[in-house]
Amino acid sequence: MDQGAITDVLDGRWAEVRRMIRDQVAAAEFLESHELDTERHRAQVYEQLAELAASGRQRLGFAAEYGGGDDVGGSLVSFEMLGFGDLSLMVKAGVQWGLFGGAVQLLGTARHHERYLRPIMDLELPGCFAMTETGHGSDVANLRTTATYDPASAEFVVDTPHEAARKDYIGNAARDGRMAVVFAQLVTEGESRGVHAFLVPIRDENGNTAPGVRIEDCGRKAGLNGVDNGRLSFAGVRVPRAALLNAYGDVAVDGTYSSSIESDSRRFFTMLGALIRGRVSVAGSAGNATKRALAIAVRYGEARRQFARPGDPDEVVLLDYRAHQRKLLPALAKTYALHFAQEELVGALHDLSNQGDSAEVDEHRQRELESRAAGVKAFATWHATSSIQTAREACGGAGYLAENVLPALKADTDVFTTFEGDNTVLLQLVAKGLLTSYKDHFEELSPLATARFVAEQFVGTVMERTAARKLIDRLVDAGPGNDDDATLLDRGWQVKAFCDREEHLLDGAAARLRRVSDDDADPFEVFNGAQDHLLHAASAHVERILLEAFVAGVDRCADPAAKALLDKVCDLFVLSTIEADRAWFLEHGRLTSARSKAVVATVNELCAELRPHASILVDAFAIPEQFIAAAPIAAGAERGRQDVMRAHDAAVR
Amino acid sequence: MDQGAITDVLDGRWAEVRRMIRDQVAAAEFLESHELDTERHRAQVYEQLAELAASGRQRLGFAAEYGGGDDVGGSLVSFEMLGFGDLSLMVKAGVQWGLFGGAVQLLGTARHHERYLRPIMDLELPGCFAMTETGHGSDVANLRTTATYDPASAEFVVDTPHEAARKDYIGNAARDGRMAVVFAQLVTEGESRGVHAFLVPIRDENGNTAPGVRIEDCGRKAGLNGVDNGRLSFAGVRVPRAALLNAYGDVAVDGTYSSSIESDSRRFFTMLGALIRGRVSVAGSAGNATKRALAIAVRYGEARRQFARPGDPDEVVLLDYRAHQRKLLPALAKTYALHFAQEELVGALHDLSNQGDSAEVDEHRQRELESRAAGVKAFATWHATSSIQTAREACGGAGYLAENVLPALKADTDVFTTFEGDNTVLLQLVAKGLLTSYKDHFEELSPLATARFVAEQFVGTVMERTAARKLIDRLVDAGPGNDDDATLLDRGWQVKAFCDREEHLLDGAAARLRRVSDDDADPFEVFNGAQDHLLHAASAHVERILLEAFVAGVDRCADPAAKALLDKVCDLFVLSTIEADRAWFLEHGRLTSARSKAVVATVNELCAELRPHASILVDAFAIPEQFIAAAPIAAGAERGRQDVMRAHDAAVR
After folding, report:
1. Could you say which architecture CATH assigns to the domain B277-617?
2. What end-to-end distance do the CA atoms of chain A give, in Å?
3. Cβ contact B336:B550 at 8 Å
4. B180 near B170, Cβ under 8 Å?
5. Is the dihedral of CA B187, B189, B193, B199 positive or negative?
6. What pLDDT, on the 0 to 100 scale, is given for residue B493?
7. Interior CA angle at A215 toward A212 and A219, to 5°?
8. Where in this chain does the record put each Acyl-CoA dehydrogenase/oxidase N-terminal domain (chains A, B) (predicted)?
9. B interface mutation test: which of A148, A322, A382 has the most B CBs within 10 A?
10. B385 and B414 Cβ atoms separated by less than 8 Å
11. What is the CATH topology of the domain spanning B3-127?
12. Which of residues 443-462 of B touch A (CB under 8 A)?
């Protein structure tokens, strides 16, 4: 089996970018730094950031007219590749070019682009993305920072009214940032116009804090200590009128407010929607961190032996144990599914971005993409947290040593489940989007409005195919008419099972929300009572998206042997997913007891069948070897020790 | 509701010890140290260890004739209480007095006790417990270190034959230890007699490494960096004949080996069995670390608000959301269950220890206890890992900051799932014990021997009641004859459901293992093919133990209101446990679809009913306030901010 054929499918549309980065990284010294204290780690990451700036890759996502590469997809893939290395660097780069630079590009206009994009790309102007406040992380439409327009001086006055309105956890703030995109309630002519973004200098070129600005250091964190997170407060900080990033709303010199979008809320969520690249990057790098952890654990599981097999002096390799296969292989299968979904997502986002300002962006498609990015981000980051934990445990005490990399992977990725959107909140939004057919902006609808909308308008689920529409429809049509055990491995049956579950869960959630029309209904109680149902529906939806992306990915594979292997990995993803939720399938008459038990048995069989290919499947990720070899247990140390021990034992016998 | 009534039940038999420690700790400065580098952290923990030695509490577990307290239970509770603080101190104390001191006491004889116990208790002789090797962590009967008796000099020669035989991850080795209990294959008269323990000096009083000994530092770890883990290798290190801890086997001057236990393997597992206190301590401190994390998350969830309720300017408190209740309250219920099971376990171990050397220790009871300790340890530590993770996520970005303690709790407890026995291996041993009715020593039976034993002798499961036997039997007898929704909350039905599942899973596992008798059966394949089934059976067994302990605990509660509340917490434990495994109940006709859905609905209802009592339930743990207040988000900072914000908002409106 040529693992290269699998790598080709995984590398996909931006294979060139991936290969280029692998070559560059192989030459550089981007390694872990678990021996560094906070300040030295921050300094090292800043140096690495400067090297990255010199590579030019950070330009990919920016507009060509300002020296960028006009390649959103390439840019996202490039962030994703940073997920193989020190995740502090990935986050630091994401803050500088994805969030800070992205906000200037997407929320600003020519006056901002001309002045700032080049220095941002070149890291001459390190910046921050100051949205989250101590008191508002999820509900960002209700941020409390204010920017009040003063027509007398044609300036905005930025204020932090109380401690809960501090900008908090802001990357680049504690040490390096010189400017921040500050999200604040815009007040003009005595009226609040919702949240807008402003460019606010926070330090001068010598690193002195700007007047009226207070900067605190968030201090030590569980991980990502190469990123200097801080808190920002503003006391009457004045910035010129032009500091408003005015792509979606503007204030004239006399204080008159204007915007092409009438509703304050809708405008803000349109702005937020423009910024989904951050979530996509987090999902991608979580995926690559997961791959790295699984690669280390699989290498160790292939070398490590424990307990002798009866009649055989050699001890059994860990991966030969069913319990060990059960830990690592379904996680590996899901990692493949997420990779393909990520690849789809990046492609779709790239294509949408390329419609440019001229074409009217397809709003429905934009919202569907926002939803998909949220769902994939939630799944990818939870999967990272659980798989890296599993990988750590699968390596025993060795997995607990910093030198074996897993501790850093675990600690660094941990926050991914709650930053760039708390996963639970994101999944809830996915459900809302489905129930309202993306009629409104992704994060816009309140629980009450959602419930009302559903009560009035929801007529049933429409399955929107995300990938390889025709292929999927064909599979579904060709699926078996009746259920028997053999059909568990029929792709048509599998896709239908996922779709059916999603539809049923959504219809049920809608029925619950409709109770809001009852006379005595408390809208919050109605919504809250349906919350676990909504989250389940959203999960079923995301799992369907993953499956469709996986199916499309397998279909793109030209090599027959590689394709057959990927097909089996897809089967494992499907059946381990059904296994985990098989109570639902049983409760709703979708599986008989016998077939449900057959699902469990088939997962075991698939694990056994895939076990000999575990190494190929992790090697196919084509993680630059230095990132694997950084962990002695994956670099062959374990195999070497086992070989010496076996030779010694044989000599003694 | 008086939370004190709940605290009284939780404090249980060693309430005095718990209260004394709370008072002492309240006065001391045992706080987190996330700003310390490795060396300073190690130094601080050593200082704290010395303070602990001065307190005299470490004497509790030792024999009175050498200055100890003859109070095994009190000693275990005292280790458990250390779980509220810096877990590095807990582990360091556990190494010094539990593992090192415990091995000298339990595996040694008078000549060792007289010479070493006092300096060990007083920390004049810091020591290590050197069992694990790089190549053997789980399969410790096959350690490769050798101790060869040389009759010419009446010495043992200790050797590390190759790198995989290094003693690895050894606490106290890298910095402080002066002596190690080294586990090695005893070779005398040219014959190996299995693993025995030897006292080997590794450093002199000035800290210089002893001749022939090589000490390496394991370096930075994911957590527990206040513990100096290291690696020990031996090259022809000579120790006197008396260095053998000879309670279970001895070598005469001429090299003749003698032991009261014939079989080498059986002898070693008897020695291991004597050392189960380590596992019990790990389970206890994992439980207390979990309580601390949940207390922090509940306090935050009670203060933190996000998203406004329709028609109400105030935002909703996080714990009012069903999804948030679902995260924290079932975890809290299971924490209660584990606490009661731990309390039972400590009591049983204490009583067994007090039978003393004179009485013939009940072997069956000893083995059942070893099994229970393994099961409770596995469950308590996995529960710690998942609950502390949940608590971290429930606190969002604030939970990621080191100052809020959760990162240290997470990182420090992580290794608990794989040290003092890998959890998966431990659960497998629990299943083996059940299938063989504890006929053989806990860790002794090989897969082949187990399968053969089962094939020949297993006749069906016998439910051994662990707690409040009569009460449980009465509940079961009084349980409803037929199933309807109302019975989900009937304790008799619940206990029966747990027992029935355990029996059925064990019978099924036995049936699988019997296939080893088939002519063409490969014993390893038979065993491996049943592995997931065995692990499920073991889990069902441990969950039944937890339930019985919970029931007995509730029964001990004298206060009616407190008892009613605990009853509800027990219901939530039971039904969330059934919910998680309800596919099994459905597949095996134990629940209809309708009843299975009712289980989910009842978990939701119980969460809502317990939500107003969440604070009381965490306050009842009586965690010394300083350990909660160490986290600003739990010390009222969040509530203060929210109050200021609401006052400000009201003024603006």
Report:
1. Up-down Bundle (1.20)
2. 37
3. yes
4. yes
5. negative
6. 94
7. 170
8. 19-122
9. A322
10. yes
11. Butyryl-Coa Dehydrogenase, subunit A; domain 1 (1.10.540)
12. 446-448
Q: What are the structure tokens assigned to A87, written together?
A: 């995740």
Written as one letter, the residue type at A72 is V
Nearest to A539 by CA among A431, A415, A425, A400: A431
Q: How far is the C-alpha of A423 from the C-alpha of A446, rounded, in Å?
A: 17
B544 membership: H or E segment, kind and range: helix B531-555
Percent of chain A with pLDDT over 70: 95
Q: For the segment A463-510, what is each residue's pLDDT rounded down to a tens digit?
A: 777 777 888 888 888 877 666 656 899 999 999 999 999 999 999 999
Tell me the C-alpha distance between A76 and A348, whole Å: 12
**CA R_g for chain B:** 26
Length of chain B: 653
State the catalytic residue, choosing from A302, A344, A370, A420.
A420
B241-275 burial: b if 16+ Cβ within 10 Å, else e = bbbbbbbbbbbeeebebebebeebbbbbbbbbbbb
CA A291 vs CA A12, A27, A285, A339, A619: distances in Å: 17, 21, 10, 10, 10
- How far apart CA A163 and CA A490 sit, in angstroms, is 57
- Report pTM: 0.96
Contacting residues of B for A378, CB less than 8 Å apart: none
SS3 letters across A135-189 = CCCCCHHHCCCEEEEECCCCEEEEECCCHHHCEEEECCCCCCCCEEEEEEEEEEC
Q: Are strands A230-234 and A315-317 parallel, antiparallel or unpaired?
A: unpaired
Q: Are A409 and A224 in contact (CB under 8 A)?
A: no
CA B514/CA B46 separation, integer angstroms: 52
- CA separation for the pair B404, B256 (Å, rounded): 59
A307 shares contact with chain B (CB less than 8 Å): yes
Domain range summary for chain B, segments of one domain joined by +: 3-127, 128-273, 277-617
Is A116 in a helix, a strand, or coil? helix
Distance CA B89, CA A402 (A): 20
Question: Which 3-state string (H, E, C) describes B147-180?
Answer: EEEECCCCEEEEECCCHHHCEEEECCCCCCCCEE
Buried b (16+ CB within 10 A) or exposed e, B498-509: bbbbbbbbbbbb
Report d(CA B648, CA B174) in Å as an integer: 55
Residue B148: closest CA among B115, B188, B108: B188
Look up residue B433 and give its two tokens. 């014990």
- Residue A231 contacts residue A422 (beta carbons within 8 Å): no
Reference B398, options B291, B287, B303; nearest CA is B303
Nearest CA to B299 out of B647, B628, B645 is that of B628
What's the rounded mean pLDDT across residues A368-379? 96
Residue B127: helix, strand or coil by DSSP? strand
pLDDT digits (tens, 9 = 90+) for A207-251: 999 999 999 999 999 999 999 999 999 999 999 999 999 999 999
**B323 to A532: CB separation less than 8 angstroms, yes or no:** yes
Say if residue B233 is exposed, middle or buried (CB neighbours under 10 Å; 0-12, 13-18, 19+): buried
Fold agreement between A128-273 and A277-617: no
Catalytic, out of B155, B420, B502, B503:
B420
Fold of A128-273: Butyryl-CoA Dehydrogenase, subunit A; domain 2 (2.40.110)
Judged by CB atoms closer than 8 Å, whether chains meet at A221 and B400 is answered as yes
- How does residue B30 score in pLDDT terms, banded at 50, 70 and 90? low
B601 touches A: beta carbon within 8 Å: no
Report d(CA B425, CA B431) in Å as an integer.
10
